[in-house]
């Protein structure tokens, strides 16, 4: 199983437009971060978690470069949404090239998120008088404590809270992905035992109302005890990638756009 970090930044990305913060001016490519998303692949399956405003650029650098044995664009097996904020859903229209090649793209989300998507992208879900070039999806509700069967493996939803907003993370075998969480219940942490790779948000060192900071993320890591952890949803206020990476424990790292990890 392979996980590719498509984006590791916050809702504004890095560099922030118009900012003269030193990290926004950095020449280290690891300090340039698109909006947060990952691609998870195994066998012939390709699933994306979250589809933000940078989705098109992210696909141009990943899936669009892959081809089936027949030489056609590999299919997008589905999109799992964590929650409905714009930096996680705003790229839904850009699934069109996949739809034109393969038909409906499956999407998976909490019922509340599906309702929001139908309101924001009504033309995608329309059943009558559809615009000829509109993308189309097949919708599947994600329910806590009910695993999804995707590509022959169980995918386990992990419930957390982004301030007062419920969000889902997802566990794929030995990999778990949690973003935009601030709190998580003990019973949900039990679902995260035995991980090879944990991906979790860590916005910055300073406390934040709705996101984990570094200390809070490290406290959760100590409870979960994965083999390796990678921080994502990173603000420019975190600091330079190289400096922060050097200060973290040996088994904790800053993810960066384009990073690829594999498990046996």
At the third CATH level, what is the topology name?
Metallo-beta-lactamase, Chain A
In the CATH classification, which architecture applies? 4-Layer Sandwich
Which regions contain 5 or more consecutive residues with pLDDT less than 50? none
Strand order of the largest sheet: 6-5-4-3-2-1-14
Q: What is the H/E string?
A: EEEHEHHEHHEEEEEHEHEHEE
Overall radius of gyration: 18 Å
Helix content: 10-25%
How far apart the termini lie comes to 7 Å
User: What overall geometry do the principal axes of the alpha carbons give?
Assistant: globular
Strand content: 25-35%
- The helix-and-strand class reads alpha/beta
| Main sheet makeup | 7 strands, mixed
The overall average pLDDT, rounded, is 97
Keywords, separated by commas or semicolons:
264 residues, alpha/beta, Metallo-beta-lactamase, Chain A, seven-stranded mixed beta sheet, 8 helices, 14 strands, globular
What does this molecule look like?
- The structure is a single chain.
- The chain is globular, with a radius of gyration of 18 Å.
- By secondary structure, the chain is an alpha/beta fold.
- The chain starts with a strand and ends with a strand.
- The protein has helices spanning 55-60, 86-89, 96-102, 111-120, 122-125, 186-189, 214-224, 241-247; strands at residues 2-7, 37-42, 45-49, 78-80, 105-109, 137-141, 148-150, 153-162, 165-172, 175-178, 197-201, 228-232, 252-254, 260-262.
- It contains eight helices and 14 strands.
- The longest helix has 11 residues, at 214-224.
- The mean pLDDT is 97.
- It has a single domain (2-262), classed as Metallo-beta-lactamase, Chain A (4-Layer Sandwich), CATH 3.60.15.
- A seven-stranded mixed β-sheet has the order 6-5-4-3-2-1-14. A seven-stranded mixed β-sheet has the order 7-8-9-10-11-12-13.
- Helix content is 20%, strand content 27%.
């Amino acid at each position: 199983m392979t996980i590719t970090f498509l984006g590791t930044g916050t809702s504004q990305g890095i560099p922030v437009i118009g900012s003269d913060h030193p990290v926004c001016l950095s020449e280290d490519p690891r300090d340039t971060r698109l909006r947060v998303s990952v691609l998870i692949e195994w066998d012939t399956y390709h699933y994306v978690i979250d589809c933000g405003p940078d989705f098109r650029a992210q696909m141009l650098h990943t899936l669009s470069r892959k081809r089936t044995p027949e030489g056609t664009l590999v299919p997008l097996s589905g999109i799992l949404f964590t929650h409905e904020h714009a930096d996680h859903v705003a790229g839904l229209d850009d699934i069109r090239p996949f739809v034109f090649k393969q038909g409906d793209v499956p999407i998976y989300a909490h019922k509340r998120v599906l309702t929001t998507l139908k309101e924001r992208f009504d033309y995608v879900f329309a059943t009558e008088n559809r615009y000829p070039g509109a993308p189309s999806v097949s919708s599947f509700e994600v329910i806590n404590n009910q695993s999804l069967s995707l590509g022959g493996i169980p995918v386990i939803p992990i419930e957390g809270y982004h301030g007062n907003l419920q969000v889902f993370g997802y566990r794929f075998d030995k990999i778990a992905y949690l973003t935009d969480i601030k709190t998580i219940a003990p019973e949900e942490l039990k679902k995260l035992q035995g991980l090879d790779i944990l991906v979790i948000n860590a916005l910055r060192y300073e406390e934040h109302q709705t996101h984990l900071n570094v200390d809070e993320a490290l406290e959760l890591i100590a409870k979960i005890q994965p083999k390796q952890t990678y921080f994502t949803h990173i603000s420019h206020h975190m600091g330079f990638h190289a400096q922060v990476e050097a200060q973290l424990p040996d088994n904790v790292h800053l993810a960066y756009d384009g990073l690829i990890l594999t498990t046996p």
